[in-house]
Write a sequence for this structure.
């Protein structure tokens, strides 16, 4: 039990396969009701698919675990209609400070500009996040949550996947056309299929202490190298909800995990950091090591691996849960199009290509962060300490500081789904990149571009006032009937108007997209840009749309 949180109890109930004593075949089954599995289920349901979620437990995660959620993950939950309780409960922050010994050497702002609906980062204990996602999933009739359903067998069959599931009332067999394995770092599905990770294992140990206290610290990320209260090691401080503070201490590779978790070892460390007069209460303690590894492939036939089941990174930079949520965001719309017969099965190969590229990017950042935080040789430590000593005065040294490069969304410029620029753009949102938000007005009401995009293919046409080519809407409708539906959205400048147009109320939208009258953006359902042009051309848009759903091999 925690002092600040009461764990919900989700009851087990018999499913249709048990009642009928025969298998049922579902379009998609998700294994794992953590943040990534629940996001995948919500996203699939948002695309109109019924989803079964299997989880071996009957409550949310024990301990706060993941706590930092980046802007992109929050935007995904915003699209799925479940961001508001997360934003209301969590601690919003954007400033980070790096200390060396007893002085601050660098401060950064993760979102210095205004004009965004979603904040740069938010801290919230994982159990709250899961609870909010479960509440949203429970309210969706397309999602069936099955608690205390442990998968003990996975078999690939012709045209489907067969699962053997163990429950308090015995075992049953269920089937699905596609399986999403979101069953975590120890993934039983991965082991059942005989798959293994490649990569690096780190042996340095770290202590997590969640502490309840009334503190005067601001809601910022503070990271210390070699602080006076924990010499020759590192420490991290983050604020969470309910006056709970996450504190990490580097312990070194020789530390005994069981000994270090004992209160008589933890409390003196905290007192040295917080001061002898600070009143606090231990909420949760854990000792961890970590890995930077991944599967060779994330797609194995009809089994798709997401989150920690597919890749593992160090916690520095908050890349674990955030990248897993982006896995779900990337996969769901593709599965939906394939299951609806609107795209070929080969579209799912792009999930492998795009998210492996994302994993490699995250693994690279994570490994470099770990090497900087925990140098392995005297030479690397001397380099690290020199950078820290210089950073307070010299900007060039600050660029080399690395206390964990914080999670940013991955772009897919080299994806087979992405159409390269043919026209000249000086900036803006390049093909493959996630869309950037901006304030807009529609029908006289203030709003945000990120809400207007939704979860479908969307065409953004930047018009001069209300002048839109008469044929444009008809051409897009025709493409929607022959390829895949496309939502048509007109953007007009601040002086423009129109009952259905998005008014670029502050001019930020045109600036952020390097748009002028006639500019046309084609946006994917996961809100990444598929292609853009300076003028609409039906044949070019048709080719880009087919490429974006896997009907065209290669790209131009």
């Amino acid at each position: 039990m925690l002092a600040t949180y009461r764990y919900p109890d989700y009851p087990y109930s018999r499913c249709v396969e048990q009642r009928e004593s025969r298998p049922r075949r579902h379009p998609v089954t998700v294994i794992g009701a953590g943040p990534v599995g629940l996001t995948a289920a919500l996203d699939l349901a948002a695309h109109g698919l019924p989803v079964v979620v299997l989880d071996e437990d009957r409550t949310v995660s024990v301990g706060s675990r993941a706590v930092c959620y980046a802007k992109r993950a929050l935007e995904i939950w915003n699209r799925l209609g479940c961001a508001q309780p997360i934003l209301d409960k969590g601690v919003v922050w954007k400033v980070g400070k790096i200390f060396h010994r007893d002085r601050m050497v660098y401060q950064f702002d993760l979102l210095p500009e205004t004009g965004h609906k979603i904040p740069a980062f938010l801290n919230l204990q994982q159990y709250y996040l899961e609870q909010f996602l479960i509440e949203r999933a429970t309210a969706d009739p397309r999602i069936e949550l099955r608690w205390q359903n442990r998968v003990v067998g996975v078999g690939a069959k012709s045209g489907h996947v067969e699962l053997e599931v163990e429950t308090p009332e015995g075992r049953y067999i269920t089937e699905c056309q596609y399986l999403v394995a979101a069953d975590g770092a120890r993934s039983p599905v991965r082991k059942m299929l005989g798959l293994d990770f490649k990569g690096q294992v780190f042996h340095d140990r770290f202590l997590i202490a969640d502490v309840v206290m009334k503190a005067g610290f601001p809601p910022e990320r503070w990271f210390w190298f070699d602080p006076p209260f924990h010499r020759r090691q590192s420490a991290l401080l983050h604020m969470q909800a309910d006056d709970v503070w996450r504190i990490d201490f580097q312990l070194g590779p020789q530390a005994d995990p069981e000994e270090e978790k004992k209160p008589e070892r933890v409390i003196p460390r905290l007192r040295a950091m917080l001061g002898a007069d600070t009143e606090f209460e231990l909420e949760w303690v854990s000792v961890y090591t970590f890995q930077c590894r991944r599967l060779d492939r994330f797609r194995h036939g009809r089994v798709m691996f997401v989150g920690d089941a597919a890749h593992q990174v160090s916690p520095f930079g908050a890349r674990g849960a955030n990248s897993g949520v982006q896995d779900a965001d990337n996969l769901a719309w593709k599965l939906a199009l394939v299951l609806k017969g609107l795209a070929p099965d080969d579209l799912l190969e792009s999930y492998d290509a795009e998210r492996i590229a994302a994993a490699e990017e995250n693994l690279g950042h994570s490994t470099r962060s770990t090497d900087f935080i925990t140098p392995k040789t005297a030479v690397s430590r001397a380099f690290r300490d020199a950078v820290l000593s210089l950073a307070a005065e010299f900007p060039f040294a600050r660029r080399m500081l690395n206390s964990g490069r914080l999670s940013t969304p991955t772009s897919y410029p080299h994806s087979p789904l992405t159409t390269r620029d043919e026209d000249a753009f000086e900036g803006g949102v390049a093909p493959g990149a996630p869309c950037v938000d901006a304030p807009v007005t529609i029908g006289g009401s203030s709003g945000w571009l990120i809400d207007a995009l939704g979860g479908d293919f969307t065409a953004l046409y930047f018009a001069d006032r209300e002048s839109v080519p008469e044929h444009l809407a008809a051409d897009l409708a025709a493409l929607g009937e022959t390829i895949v539906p496309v939502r048509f959205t007109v953007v007009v400048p601040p002086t423009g108007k129109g009952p259905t147009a998005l008014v670029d109320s502050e001019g930020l939208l045109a600036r952020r997209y390097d748009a002028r009258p006639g500019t046309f953006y084609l946006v994917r359902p996961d809100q990444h840009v598929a292609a853009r042009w300076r003028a609409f051309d039906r044949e070019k848009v048709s080719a880009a749309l087919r490429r974006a759903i896997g009907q065209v091999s290669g790209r131009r």
In short: The longest strand covers residues 198-212.
